[in-house]
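help with these tokens:
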Amino acid sequence: MEFIPSDIDQYCVDHTTPENDLLSKLNRETHAKVLQSRMLSGHLQGRFLSMLSHMVQPKLILEIGTYTGYSALCLAEGLAENGKIITIDVNEELEDFVRGFFQQSSLNHKIDFRVGNALEIIPDITQEIDIVFIDADKLNYANYYDLVFDKVRTGGYIIADNVLWSGKVSNPAAKDKDTLSIRAFNDKLHTDTRVENILLPIRDGLMVVRKK
């Protein structure tokens, strides 16, 4: 996941608005108590998501893959006055941990945390969506994209995390299922004439798509 020299990465972090106290605490406790803590969005990516949310001022955000709630809290910062974020995760074991941090946030009333299979929950969402953030099981990225596309407003955004997959997407020798799936997903979005897209080498890669 290190695509730029560590000193340059640290310089970027040092010149980015700091995490607030709650996010800093969530960052520490995720690394101390939760498996696969590298899945956390973290400081730099979190500030990017917050910045984008502030720019759009969304009324509704859909997040697919909550993990410990860091990215949901970041995205919620830019919500419109009466906006909300629906965040979905299949991992029941983390539910209490995540809800505990959401409840400590002044944005808790804007967060609708749902535990279950996103493929089953998404079809029941009828409101128009301004931003979708996909950060769940990689094999279903294309399915999530197809499910949400018609629900996203014209001019809305779909963002997908981990699209560089530790650099394996550009390595022809990498042929594991996740790599092949993400590579196909990137090609699918890049050739979708209904959108404009940019792939950013932030952390493990963010694909940002704007619906025309």
Summary: The chain has one domain: 6-211. The longest helix spans residues 42-56.
